[in-house]
Amino acid sequence: MKKPKICRLQTPFESRASGAWQEYPRPQMVRESYISLCGEWKLFFIRKKDKAFLGHIQVPFPPESAISGMERTLEKDECYLHEKTLVISEDFLQETTLLHFGAVDQIAEVTLNGVFVGKHIGGYLPFTLDITKVICIGENTLQVKVIDMLDTDIPYGKQRKKRGGMWYTPISGIWQPVWLESVPRSYIQEIHMTPSLYDVKIEILGGEEEKILEIETPNGTLHHHFLGKETTVAIENPIHWTPEHPYLYHMTLKTGNDTVRSYFALRTVSIENVNGKPYILLNEKPYFFHGLLDQGYFSDGIYLPASPEGYRFDIQTMKSLGFNMLRKHIKIEPDLFYYECDRIGMIVFQDMVNNGKYHFLLDTALPTIGLKKGISHPADKRRQTLFESSAKETLSHLYNHPCVCYYTIFNEGWGQYDADRLYDELKAFDPTRIFDTTSGWFTEKKSDVKSEHIYFKKIQLSESERPLVLSEFGGYSYKVSGHTFNLNKNYGYRFFDKQDAFMNAIETLYHTEILPMIREKGLCATVLTQVSDVEDETNGLLTYDRQVLKVDKSRMQAIAKAILQAFQMTSYGI
Predict the structure, then answer these.
(1) Fewer beta carbons below 10 Å: N end or C end of the chain?
(2) What confidence category does residue 370 fall into, taking pLDDT thresholds of 50, 70 and 90?
(3) What architecture (CATH level 2) is domain 27-183?
């Protein structure tokens, strides 16, 4: 078999990557006492009793990425050890010191000054360790041991040891920002904000009994004093958040000696029948979610871009084409991604990260030809516990982001089990969002929407008692010379040799198949595959290196305008 010829592709963000990922990584809980630990670390590998120094790595980039300085795959029976020396001044330390990790894949064991301070399982979610008793003024040694055997019981996404096709290069280690904070003994641990169209309910974990809230509004600063763990604040002349007008209310919360800056938005998501058809409503009005599949892979850092600018570029580029939604596919991003969606105005349909083994015949082949019911994957207690704890942590972690409107529990049967039970539990955990229980196929009884994936045949949908969502379609491939990861192989669902033919086909697909489904069947959301090429896949609107936009902006904007007109005529009876 001919070995694939893989090319090193550079994004526009690499030249500006020096000092990247130093900005505050959690925009909804910002404190002044902040030390970024991103930058140069030492990297070792451990194999049985052997330990060897590999070199210096740039955190937060995974060792597999070229931009990390390593470009090395974790071998069988190995684990990594990240090490960094910290010099802490007396001025920084307060009563409590917190060590934050955005994400470490898959298992992290953390030691500071030779003392074990904590362990975390799961490669996509943040965790915080209280290191008050161990950290000292002056020099400190922080070590993070990383164990990653690509355990399929632990949510793993689209990583595969033998990458290819729709499966991608696996990563390991620290791949999101690491930072320190110094806080008083009684400090704000969490803030949960639940908006309506006229007020916001704020729930706080931690801090002193008395709290002071200052909210910036167009009419001036709103001052609100309260006692206890929660309060509801009415907003005069409220401005509602939409992709077209993504207004954010910035606020400061003070309690005792702790001060946190944050923000919220006023927006609601619900489901109602309008003119005889079920729709998803944004702010109590039918809304068409014109979206794209967003894998969140980059040719420089693999799991994240060379700098947060990469996220801003993707979001702004897709918005300039007329899209208002991204389906974040089988991956949870750093907080800065969701902040940019909040700020720029891009709705996110968020997938849970799958676990369990994938089976091509059961999970892809048979459903593609029509078998879309009656199959699930038995899950033992360990797999269930790991998936369900990850899902609930995801809901809690993303709860405050107004951009996140919709969750997918299972995608195309990957790891699917007990779908109806999980719908009930997760919907009860967060009743403010829409839940797509089984995106694509293997439907059971409970879901907020009817969700279809159609790639290889004409799009024909049936009306439903639930809002109708085409949660994946398209997948058209155009391979751009000089901007391709794999020179030998190409993955997509319909192939084009020229850019005009590619654009014409996308335009025809929307006009001849999507618009009729909006008018006739009440279709209210679509997810085109996809934002960018990813490794072998060349079915993106952007190349993997983000250097080439394959579609014509004005023609894509015209498609978006036609969709809006068709939807308004159907949903509003215009």
Answers:
(1) N
(2) confident
(3) Sandwich (2.60)
User: What is the Cα–Cα distance from 2 to 273, expressed in whole angstroms?
Assistant: 55
Residue 95 CA from chain centroid, whole number: 34
The topology (CATH level 3) of 269-571 is TIM Barrel (3.20.20)
Q: Domain extents for the chain?
A: 27-183, 188-264, 269-571
Do the Cβ atoms of 435 and 427 come closer than 8 Å?
Answer: yes
SS3 content of the chain, % helix, strand, coil (to 5): 20, 35, 45
CATH architecture of the region 188-264? Sandwich (2.60)
- What pLDDT band is residue 574 in, cutting at 50, 70 and 90? low
On whether the CB atoms of residues 109 and 145 are closer than 8 A, the answer is yes
Check residue 445 and report its DSSP letter. S
Q: Which pLDDT score, from 0 to 100, does residue 3 have?
A: 64
DSSP β-ladder status, 107-112 and 115-121 = antiparallel
Tens digit of each residue's pLDDT (9 = 90 or more) over 342-357: 999 999 999 999 999 8
Averaged pLDDT of the chain: 94
Rounded distance between C-alpha atoms, residue 294 and residue 531, angstroms: 5
Model confidence, pTM: 0.96
pLDDT digit string, tens, across residues 235-282: 999 999 999 999 999 999 999 999 999 999 999 999 999 998 999 999
Q: Which amino acid is at 87?
A: V
Characterise 69 by phi-psi region: left (phi > 0), alpha (psi -120 to 50), beta (else).
left
Residues 6+ apart with CB under 8 A from 231: 201, 202, 211, 213, 224
Answer for the pair 527, 472: CB distance below 8 angstroms, yes or no: yes
**CA-to-CA distance for 328 and 6, rounded, in angstroms?**
26
CB 37 within 8 A of CB 22: no
Q: pLDDT band at 147, cuts 50/70/90?
A: very high
- How far is the C-alpha of 395 from the C-alpha of 487, rounded, in Å? 40
- What pLDDT score was predicted for residue 48? 84
Q: Please, are residues 476 and 539 in contact by the beta-carbon 8 Å criterion?
A: yes
Across 495-520, average pLDDT: 97
Query: Do 299 and 545 form a contact (C-beta atoms < 8 A)?
Result: yes
Task: Please say whether the beta carbons of 41 and 24 come within 8 A.
Answer: no
Closest CA to 413 of 479, 475, 368, 350: 368
Extract the tokens encoding 86: 């910290």
Q: Give the angle 288-280-557 at the CA atoms, nearest 5°.
A: 10
Closest CA to 396 of 25, 125, 199: 125
The predicted structure's pLDDT at residue 368: 78
- Alpha-carbon gap, residue 303 to 59, rounded angstroms: 12
113 close to 140: Cβ distance less than 8 angstroms: yes
